[in-house]
Backbone:
């Protein structure tokens, strides 16, 4: 795979940035709908589900378990898990 040049990098960064911006805008647009139809208990349930989704997304991005061979040697990158960094 060839390296990314700066123009390609900026294009990809703009696409990801626009996606994030679009998600934030959708949250603001949906807020009146949420306040009309959800009770405070429903807000709590929704927040718990959001947090669980965030944690699962972080775990998925770290690739823990899927990038290590069976002998336990890491295949690349630093682990972000406590105790998974370089030994001193």
Residues:
């Amino acid at each position: 795979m060839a390296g990314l040049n700066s123009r390609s990098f900026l294009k990809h960064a703009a696409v990801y940035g626009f996606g994030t911006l679009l998600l934030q805008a959708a949250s603001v647009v949906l807020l009146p709908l949420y306040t009309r139809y959800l009770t405070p208990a429903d807000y709590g349930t929704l927040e718990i589900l959001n947090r669980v989704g965030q944690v699962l997304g972080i775990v998925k991005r770290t690739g823990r378990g899927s990038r290590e061979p069976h002998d336990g040697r890491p295949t690349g990158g630093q682990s972000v898990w406590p105790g998974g960094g370089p030994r001193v």
Remarks:
- The chain has a mean pLDDT of 78.
- DSSP finds two helices and no strands in the chain.
- The helical segments are 6-37, 40-62.
